[in-house]
């Protein structure tokens, strides 16, 4: 198990207490590489990703690389992602790898080994997963996370408009998204201070859409920053579980690069806004 046998929920709570709740994304989007005056190739990817990581990781509790933007460059891109994970850990940040994997049986087990298995070069402190082959199909990821002290964030109600129809569909006992939250709540029962199973809930959804009380796990909240949600939007949406929320910002921070000083200023300003609302 990682970090001397301490579960992910406890490590996350400690990191947030020390550094605040901001989750900084590292998304090497081609448009951002261009804005940083870098070529859209493996060399530009490496310069962008390592500059962002080495500047941001020492100031935030959680760093979230978006795997797809690395995978787009093949083996060279994946090698850069491995370096990002190592650099972020060396700087004291927890790494939440945004991979959104979801499959069944041995295939899901292989994904779990790749991203949650001890000794894997791609193993992060936590990963995002998709439950839309059934929440139970994620069992290999839950088992691997529990065995190694890592975490899993399950997509529940995402910030993209296309997700609303499926995730908001009725099940007879609520919505699809609510069923995912309820299943995560069951997985986290009895854990202290937080369970290892988080959910992804967009910061742009309608307040009151989900019942999150008693989740006893972390909530990754994309949509904060460049996608339109502000710090003041978080309290009406998350209410009593606000302390468990990780507001995620990528472009809202990265647009201030490539100057490291400007990136650090953007992080401090964002953290101050969140501290005012969350504490």
UniProtKB/TrEMBL annotation:
Keywords from the UniProt entry: Decarboxylase, Lyase, Pyrimidine biosynthesis
Gene3D superfamilies listed in its UniProt record: Aldolase class I
SMART domains: OMPdecase (SM00934)
E.C. number(s) listed in UniProt: 4.1.1.23
GO molecular function annotation: orotidine-5'-phosphate decarboxylase activity
Membrane spanning stretches: none
InterPro entries: Aldolase_TIM, OMPdecase_AS, OMPdecase_type-2, OMPdeCOase_dom, RibuloseP-bd_barrel
Reactions accelerated catalytically: orotidine 5'-phosphate + H(+) = UMP + CO2
CDD domains (alphabetical): OMP_decarboxylase_like
Active site: 100
Group of enzyme by EC: lyase
Domain Orotidine 5'-phosphate decarboxylase as annotated: residue spans: 21-266
Biochemical pathway: Pyrimidine metabolism; UMP biosynthesis via de novo pathway; UMP from orotate: step 2/2
Similarity comment: family membership: Belongs to the OMP decarboxylase family. Type 2 subfamily.
Protein name: Orotidine 5'-phosphate decarboxylase
Protein source organism: Prauserella oleivorans
């Amino acid at each position: 198990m990682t970090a001397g046998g301490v579960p992910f929920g406890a490590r996350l709570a400690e990191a947030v207490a020390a550094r605040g709740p901001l989750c900084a994304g590292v998304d090497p989007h081609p448009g951002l590489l261009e804005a940083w005056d870098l070529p859209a190739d493996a060399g530009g990817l490496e310069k962008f990703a390592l500059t962002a990581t080495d500047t941001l990781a020492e100031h935030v509790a959680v760093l979230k690389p978006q795997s797809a933007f690395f995978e787009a460059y093949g083996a060279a891109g994946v090698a850069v992602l491995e370096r990002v994970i190592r650099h972020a850990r060396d700087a004291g940040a927890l790494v939440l790898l945004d991979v959104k994997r979801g499959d069944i049986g041995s295939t899901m087990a292989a994904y779990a080994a790749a991203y949650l298995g001890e000794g894997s070069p791609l193993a992060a402190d936590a990963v995002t997963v998709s439950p839309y082959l059934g929440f139970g199909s994620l069992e290999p990821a839950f088992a691997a996370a529990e065995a190694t002290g890592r975490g899993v964030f399950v997509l529940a109600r995402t910030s993209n408009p296309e997700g609303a129809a499926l995730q908001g569909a009725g099940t007879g006992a609520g919505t699809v998204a609510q069923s995912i939250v309820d299943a995560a709540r069951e997985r986290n029962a009895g854990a202290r201070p937080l369970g290892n199973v988080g959910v992804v809930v967009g910061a742009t959804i309608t307040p009151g859409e989900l019942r999150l009380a008693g989740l006893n796990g972390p909530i990754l909240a994309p949509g904060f920053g460049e996608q339109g949600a502000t710090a003041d939007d978080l309290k009406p949406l998350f209410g009593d579980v606000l302390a468990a929320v990780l507001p995620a910002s990528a472009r809202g921070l990265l647009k201030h690069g490539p100057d490291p000083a400007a990136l650090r200023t953007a992080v401090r300003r964002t953290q101050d806004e969140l501290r005012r609302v969350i504490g």
